[in-house]
Specification:
alpha/beta; single chain; 6-stranded mixed beta sheet; 4-stranded antiparallel beta sheet
Length: 315
């Protein structure tokens, strides 16, 4: 059953009695995720939380703050910075981590950046391999992390649907979807040998609609790029690509749009939308028939693109 805009607003202002009935699904998801985060903090010697600055990361960090409140989150956040994220994301990252007294570690593949690696010069496949996968694997190895939280959800994309909540990685940080530890109900297997690690996905069972409803209910800060407004974009391969330079001047059009997902600005498309508030975004999600990943160029740049990237050690 779909909710209308008045009902969505009502959810945000419900009494405790009403909330226990209407938000039982969100409360169950919240409790499951907080339990996973606490278990990882207790079981592993050196966990880290991957922080992409997107909406799912914002929810995951919010849950971590709740899990250990009033104490500080007992592990650092790790941002793999390609150097090509939206400027608004860098501004939000620094503001949000400072506001909540979070330990932020940033890692970039500086050697690749010095060689001028970018998606326009070498293509998205090689660019991702250098600036994301290699940077991530190097950062995890240098930090000696044995568990890394990620904000991926199973409903995002088919290879992510194959991931366990505790997803095993070998000594090279690589994933074999046919060689995963059994995971029954909420029984997670954290046994690993030295050099091996686990990627942990506390939001696996959430949907995009759950994420937006929770953000609205918990009043979680998010990057303004998620809200619709007129933005300069060019249309390329049926994607609305934002423009941050003087290139393509003749093709640029001011378009009312917003982003359902955030990544590198060269490779992330916007969607035409009038949704400039959270209730409007939630309403939009109720009729959405495609995953937000449809706007990510890197998901479609080769056959089995995301699964292949994940096997090599991608997020």
């Amino acid at each position: 059953m779909s909710l209308n805009i008045e009902e969505i607003n009502h959810i945000a202002n419900m009494t405790i009695a009403e909330e226990s009935y209407r938000l039982s699904n969100l409360k169950t998801l919240e409790a499951e995720s907080i339990n996973i985060i606490r278990e990882v903090a207790a079981e592993f010697e050196n966990p880290v939380m991957l922080y992409s600055v997107g909406k799912d990361s914002s929810v995951m960090v919010h849950l971590a703050i709740k899990a250990f409140y009033p104490k500080k989150v007992p592990f650092p956040l790790l941002h793999i910075d390609t150097g090509y994220k939206f400027p608004e994301m860098y501004e939000f990252r620094d503001h949000y981590t400072a506001k909540h007294n979070l330990e932020l570690r940033v890692h970039r593949n500086e050697e690749a950046l010095k060689r001028g690696i970018n998606p326009l010069s070498v293509g998205t496949v090689k660019c991702c391999a250098e600036l994301k996968t290699k940077a991530l694997l190097d950062a995890l190895k240098e930090g000696g992390y044995d568990a890394a939280f990620g904000g991926a959800r199973r409903d995002e994309e088919k290879s992510r649907a194959k991931e366990r909540i505790y997803s095993f990685r070998d000594r090279h940080g690589q994933w074999n979807p046919k060689n995963q530890k059994p995971e029954l109900w909420n029984l997670f297997n954290s046994r690993i040998d030295p050099g091996e690690s686990i990627r942990v996905f506390p939001l696996s069972n959430w949907t995009e609609l759950d994420i937006w409803t929770y953000i609205h209910h918990e009043n979680i800060e998010i990057v303004p790029l998620y809200f619709a407004k007129n933005r300069p974009v060019i249309e390329k391969n049926n994607q609305l690509i934002p423009v941050y330079t003087d290139e393509h001047k003749e093709e640029v059009k001011e378009t009312m749009c917003r982003f359902r997902t955030l990544g590198c600005h060269y490779c992330t498309g916007a969607v035409r939308s009038e949704a400039d508030t959270l209730p409007k975004i939630i309403e939009e999600m109720m009729v959405a028939r495609h995953s937000e990943r449809i706007t990510r160029v890197i998901d479609h740049d080769q056959d089995s693109s995301m699964e292949q990237k994940k096997k090599e050690g991608y997020f």
